[in-house]
Specification:
six-stranded mixed β-sheet; globular; alpha+beta; 8 helices; 23% helix; 357 residues
Amino acid sequence: MQLVLDRISKKVGPETWLHEMSLVPRTGEVTVLLGATQAGKTSLMRIMAGLDVPSAGDIRVDGVRVTGMPVRERNVAMVYQQFINYPSLKVADNIASPLKLRGEKNIAQRVREIAQRLHIEMFLERYPAELSGGQQQRVALARALAKGAPLMLLDEPLVNLDYKLREELREELTQLFAVGDSTVIYATTEPGEALLLGGYTAVLDGGELLQYGPTAEVFHAPTSLRVARAFSDPPMNLMAATASADGALLAGGPALAIALPAGASRGLTVGLRASAIRETSREGDITLAGKVELAEISGSDTFVHVSTAVGELVAQLTGVHYFALGAAVDLHANPSEAYVFDADGVLLVAPRRRGGD
């Protein structure tokens, strides 16, 4: 299926829920809709599905205009945040329901194959209420896969699961999408989830489509400050700077030796990802002295919040580290890993990507 959203927008009363945008998801690939709550992800998916109609613009599927065509007339599979299953049907019958509607043969075998892919074959004779939240969501995913729809929409399907279950299902979904032939639209608020799923990412904010492209490219080269903020977890460290003969001079701090484009405005913003800030110095680094405000251990990383002359910075240090509150600490970063945005928030300089990144 080739889905085309052509200059669509959505207004509800005086409010604009979706500003005019065009989007052509890649056929047979995962397209991630990334944005904070109320960025417009669900509104956009409802229009894709036919649950809602745009106020302007057209929707085409394989060249045919389907704007206004209801969801029951489209071949779309959907999975929501909630665990939506048929409570009176056993797991096997939940998964089989779309197969029966199509009149397929060998339904029992197909159900077992799909259940095995999602590791729920041992629950086929149970009812959804007898399963955990993660298991119920696997059933909903299995039913969506069984439908075999050319367009699959997943609206933050893992958000209500605990951390461990989310991690497990993310990895499994990545493998499932890799072998499928459906166009998958996956909405999330988490940049890490977008990176894990790969494919393509559309960054949304306030109902606007800010950037769309291969996920790695959008992450490494955000076209604006708004994209950089949306596609960073923890948030990108942002520091005020001015253009100087030495590069980008941080307000209250050192200069970063960065080649700026000719005519760069004096009012700049320098961005450093938390993973680019280190406790150990390397050749060519700048040093920022500060005091520890907070240290958080998350998994195998430690996030250290440090108050410095250029503002509060967050450093993502590999491993488990312990810091006393108020302790003096020197942070180091290399100018080659810095982003520079102009006064309008437009990207001027991005770090050069290493091979394979």
